[in-house]
Amino acid sequence: MDKLIIKQSPPLKGEVVISGAKNAALPLLMTSLLTAQPCRYSNVPQLRDISTTQALLKDLGVGVEQQEANTVLLHAAELTSDTASYDLVRTMRASILVLGPLLARLGKANVSLPGGCAIGARPVNLHLEGLEKMGAVINVDEGYVRASVDGRLKGARIFMDIVSVGATENLMMAAALADGETVIENAAREPEIVDLANCLNSMGARISGAGTDKIRIHGVETLNGCDYRVLPDRIETGTYLVAATVTGGHIKCLNAAPETLDAVLSKLQQAGAVITVGKDWIELDRTQTPLTAVKVKTAPHPGFPTDMQAQFVALNAVAHGTGVITETIFENRFMHVPELQRMGAEIALETNSAVSKGESKLKGAPVMATDLRASASLIIAGLVAEGETHISRIYHLDRGYEAIERKLGGLGAKVSRASE
Ligand SMILES: CC(=O)N[C@H]1[C@@H](OP(=O)(O)OP(=O)(O)OC[C@H]2O[C@@H](n3ccc(=O)[nH]c3=O)[C@H](O)[C@@H]2O)O[C@H](CO)[C@@H](O)[C@@H]1O
Ligand SMILES: C=C(OP(=O)(O)O)C(=O)O
């Protein structure tokens, strides 16, 4: 197993090119299941979750052709299986996103229930209840969701009592091929939802309202292929911006989507960063300003993203003043706190808040990555900790950050990978 070694580094400096968004690319690749025509996706990041998705799609009968490093052609001329097995699903929760498309295209699907993971229970009831409203018969049996529908799925009005990104995506894909109109109320408004709707519409779907809490999908009988470019990764962008802020650096993120990062940029400004944005770039300078702790509460988009919470816990640990980070989306997303404490961070966990005293003098230590964004927070802490930080279990990191050592190294960070 690989580990990452981070040495105390100079302030980050230079340019970094942002990759396509993992959380947009995963549902986008699933749209290939909805059509017999070829679908070409570009700006697809090279990540473990993407190779898992490709393996899953291949298993269902989808032709997968890697055209260039970040471009893939998927062709589901005919699907040969309706089953997403536990072996593939267990490593990636987004696998549940094959359920809606399989049901819409084949009228049946067997998808292993994704297990619990380090950040919370993450049930899939909203996905299942929405599909049932559209006429699917669903049983959960031996760890599998077994779903079928007689004929086509039917348009329905679906109200979600919790805002769910994945359920909105699954239902939007299923409804694209349903008979009649589906209205999703209290829908997620994340930029990745808008990206998925744009891709589906480019395939001939009739979706309006994506990006608001009410999405209307007028089902069509068939969809065409697509040639679609994945949205830039706002969480990867935010992670480099926090790393630059914490180290007192000056960086420019290229190929970014500033309009997807309002809540994060506003908190970074409060923390002391000077930020300038252009159409597809963000420049951040904290060479001349002090670092101040911030108060953050996670919320569905356009609120502050839970996927940026761990990085801000690291920021607050070393900033001046008391910082409070409150997590409202996942019930167990503070596994990075004990690891940061091992590095000397003075942080107290109070129910669903991480309260930091500020100006902790961090020291390198062996620490363990417990999930994807927790890994990112440990890297950020390692950049300013005295000595060396050894982060184990970095397979979590490889799920979501393309070429992270190369990108951080290009900004002057002292990061290397070694086998344990
Ligand atoms: C691949 C992907 O895009 N992952 C993102 C997606 O995950 P994901 O789509 O899994 O997250 P959801 O938006 O569904 O989860 C939000 C909340 O709803 C709950 N819930 C969800 C579904 C359900 O059927 N029942 C239920 O109770 C969850 O446990 C959680 O508390 O959105 C999360 C919230 O922004 C992000 O942290 C993840 O990075
Ligand atoms: C939690 C995340 O991803 P996933 O939903 O794929 O586990 C994430 O991207 O931070």
Automatic annotation (TrEMBL):
Superkingdom, taxonomy of origin:
Bacteria
User: Residue positions of the PTM 2-(S-cysteinyl)pyruvic acid O-phosphothioketal?
Assistant: 117
Molecular function per GO = UDP-N-acetylglucosamine 1-carboxyvinyltransferase activity
EC no.? 2.5.1.7
The record's listing under Gene3D superfamilies reads: Enolpyruvate transferase domain (3.65.10.10)
Tell me which Pfam families the record gives: EPSP_synthase
* InterPro entries hit by this protein: Enolpyruvate_Tfrase_dom, Enolpyruvate_Tfrase_sf, MurA_subfamily, RNA3'P_cycl/enolpyr_Trfase_a/b, UDP_GlcNAc_COvinyl_MurA
Q: Where is the Enolpyruvate transferase domain?
A: 7-408
Subcellular location(s): the record lists:
Cytoplasm
Keywords from UniProt, A to Z, are: Cell cycle, Cell division, Cell shape, Cell wall biogenesis/degradation, Cytoplasm, Peptidoglycan synthesis, Pyruvate, Transferase
Family in the record: Belongs to the EPSP synthase family. MurA subfamily.
Per its UniProt record, what PANTHER family does this chain match?
UDP-N-ACETYLGLUCOSAMINE 1-CARBOXYVINYLTRANSFERASE (PTHR43783)
Q: What is this protein called?
A: UDP-N-acetylglucosamine 1-carboxyvinyltransferase
What is the species of this protein?
A: Alteromonas gilva
